[in-house]
Design brief:
The complex is a heterodimer of chains A (325) and B (274). By secondary structure, chain A is of the alpha/beta class. Chain A folds into 2 domains: 172 residues, 3-Layer(aba) Sandwich (Rossmann fold); 60 residues, 2-Layer Sandwich (Alpha-Beta Plaits). Helix content of chain A is 33%, strand content 25%. Chain A is built from 11 helices and 13 strands. Chain A has a 6-stranded mixed sheet with strand order 5-6-7-3-8-9, with helices on both faces. A 4-stranded antiparallel sheet of chain A has the order 11-12-10-13, covered by helices on one side. In chain A, helix 3 crosses helix 4. In chain A, 46% of the residues are buried. Chain B has one domain. Chain B has 11 helices and 2 strands, in the order αααααααββαααα. A two-stranded antiparallel ribbon of chain B has the order 1-2. In chain B, strand 1 and strand 2 form a beta hairpin. Classes of the chains: A alpha/beta (325), B mainly alpha (274).
Chain lengths: 325, 274
């Protein structure tokens, strides 16, 4: 089995019920090699419960999880090459940071114990490694959590809200770290309730609402969906209708007090030049809806989230967004 | 190196060395015999005598001290010390939220369970050996390292008595290990250290209570509390093995299902907190 043939994460029909409450309701997720995959949803949507099932901490009520093709509910060997944390990373408060890592390295076996100084260095905690974790700030624990994950030399990192609770500087550092790890070839799945965080670092995303996936695909597609409809007002709307109707990439041109049309950002830019050249000077040209933020809210809060029209994901284009950023 | 049960065991001991409760239990194990000897010393000066087993021997041989402490500490003190760690060993992971941290490394749940269980048992053994050893030393300083009269009235030499003391401690460990198993079960089930520690002690005391209820005399030999006195069979001439053999199977009857249940609970539980 080569790495590229078997996806790092393959979740199918995952369900978790607690009595009457369905926390996760038929989740399908595929994280491909090289992805920085955002798992986006408001608090309580079922992100953490899904991640716990992926790490073998919770038994699914139904459905399956495969990490590199192995089932984490059967044996911890499925976590080979996998590391991460759910909710805030936790440690023994009465042991020092270094001692905590030494314990976890011993539990990992192999040559993990030899990597302790190196991972402390990488998360810039060497100077506080001799202090008890009980005295660490939230940000330091978060970094120690990353260090503990790196001890395993993972090919797949599962991070639950890695930047939550950090100050702006800490959030920026965390994003930089995630990008840096992605550049090193680690596949990353990170959950977040903050769109900006996911938008900044991820190339693909699943949006979950009340236990169900309402969107899965490229971030770029989501952005295209978000910015597709424009409203146009010119000095000569009749001329503008003709020009827009003939412009490649511009569709669904409708007259009205304001002309509405759809098209990708580049096509709309071309249109603006064509309009000027045709003598229809632009008074206003603006995306009608839908910033990504609006889209996120409509997907996660709106009544018709499941019905929201989103394009299906195009063929694999790993790390496109990250490389571009 | 491939991690295993031994890795968990070693690190559990390392963690115990960093926790206050460890020293609370071990400290009590060491201090109780010393306080006891000090009490004998003053009682001797006041010329008072009491009528419990071995009391008349306390002044004649220091080797009686560990045995008298076993007699008194049997039903609550050592169970409490044992429960202090056994009841905490899984619950503390819940308290610190660290179960998810250690269960996502390269060790199976059964390995974590076994390592932790062994550490709790090791702690109970160490606590009782410390108590016995301190009692022998403190007793010998107070009353001398002399020969000891057994429950049958025969006199055994000091070295032979010392041997009997340690074998008695080992026999006493049989019901203590059962208490440890109950502590592990309550720790896994309640996920709360205080509840598990108090609950374990309650179980021990409840057995004693059942033992003194009228009409339940027939159940007496099969109660856990009775097994705490099985070691007294060693101090008869010839040695009466029957209470010891009974202790072994009665304790197995209580302990093995407790341990099995603890194992299943730990193995199957959802780690949703932390």
């Amino acid at each position: 089995m080569s790495n590229t043939a078997v996806p790092p994460v393959e979740v199918r029909g995952l369900v978790k019920r607690y009595g009457e409450l369905t926390a996760v309701d038929g989740v399908d997720i595929t994280v491909r090699t090289g992805d920085v995959y955002g798992y986006l949803g408001p608090n309580g949507a079922g992100k953490t419960t899904s991640l716990r099932m992926m790490l073998g901490l919770i038994r699914p009520t139904a459905g399956s999880v495969r990490l590199f093709g192995r089932d984490p509910t059967e044996s911890v060997t499925a976590l080979e090459g996998v590391a991460g944390f759910v909710e805030a990373p936790t440690f023994y408060p009465y042991l020092t940071g270094r001692r905590n890592l030494e314990l976890l390295a011993a539990f990992d076996g192999g040559d993990a114990p030899g990597r302790v100084p190196d991972v402390l260095e990488r998360v810039e905690l060497s100077h506080r490694a001799g202090d008890r974790v009980g005295g660490y700030s939230h940000g330091m624990r978060q970094r120690l959590g990353i260090a503990a994950a790196l001890l395993r030399e993972p090919r797949l990192l599962l991070l639950d809200e890695p930047a939550t609770g950090l100050d702006p500087g800490g959030m920026r550092d965390m994003r930089l770290l995630v990008k840096q790890l992605a550049r090193q070839g680690i596949t990353i799945m990170l959950s977040s309730h903050l769109l900006a965080e996911v938008e900044d670092v991820c190339n693909r995303v699943a949006i979950i609402r009340t236990g169900r996936i309402v969107y899965e695909g490229e971030i770029a597609d989501l952005k295209r969906t978000a910015g597709m409809t424009y409203r146009l007002s010119t000095t000569d709307d009749a001329r503008a209708l003709e020009v827009a109707g003939a412009q490649p990439g511009i569709e669904d041109v409708q007259p009205g007090p304001m002309i509405t049309l759809t098209g990708e950002a580049d096509a709309v830019a071309q249109l603006s030049r064509a309009l000027v050249e045709a003598g229809a000077l632009i008074r206003s040209l603006a995306p009608q809806s839908a910033t990504l933020e609006d889209l996120f809210f409509s997907l996660t809060e709106g009544q018709g989230g499941e019905d929201f029209a989103v394009p299906s994901a195009p063929p694999e284009e790993p790390l496109a967004a990250v490389k571009a950023s | 190196m491939k991690p295993g049960v031994r890795t968990v065991f070693r690190w559990e001991l390392a963690k115990l060395r960093r926790q206050k409760r460890t020293y609370l239990g071990l400290g009590a194990s060491a201090i109780v015999p010393i306080l006891f000897v000090v009490a004998i010393h003053f009682r001797h000066h006041h010329g008072r005598g009491d009528n419990f087993a071995f009391s008349s021997y306390l002044d004649r041989s220091g080797l009686a001290v560990p045995l008298v402490i076993l007699l008194f500490g049997a039903v609550w003190m050592f169970p409490l010390i044992t429960a202090l760690v056994a009841g905490d060993i899984f619950a503390s992971e819940d308290h610190n939220g660290t179960l998810k941290t250690i269960l996502t490394r390269s060790l199976e749940r059964w390995q974590i369970f076994a390592g932790k269980g062994l550490a709790a048992i090791a702690y109970a053994i160490v606590a009782i050996l410390i108590d016995g050893t301190v009692a022998v030393i403190a007793g010998s300083i107070q009353s001398g390292f002399h020969s000891l009269q057994t429950l049958s009235g025969t006199i055994v030499s000091a070295p032979k008595a010392l041997e009997l003391v340690y074998v008695s401690l080992l026999v006493y460990l049989i019901p203590i290990l059962t208490i440890a198993a109950i502590g592990l079960l309550l720790s896994a089930v309640t996920r709360n250290s205080a509840a598990a520690v108090v609950g374990t002690l309650m179980v021990s005391l409840l057995f004693q209570l059942i033992g003194i209820l009228p009409g339940l005399g027939g159940a007496q030999p099969y109660l856990l509390s009775t097994q705490f006195n099985a070691w007294q069979g060693l101090l008869r001439t010839p040695i009466d093995w029957s209470p010891i053999i009974r202790a072994a199977w009665v304790c197995a009857l209580y302990g093995i299902p407790s341990l099995g249940a603890a194992y299943l609970v730990f193995l199957r539980r959802d780690v949703a907190g932390g």
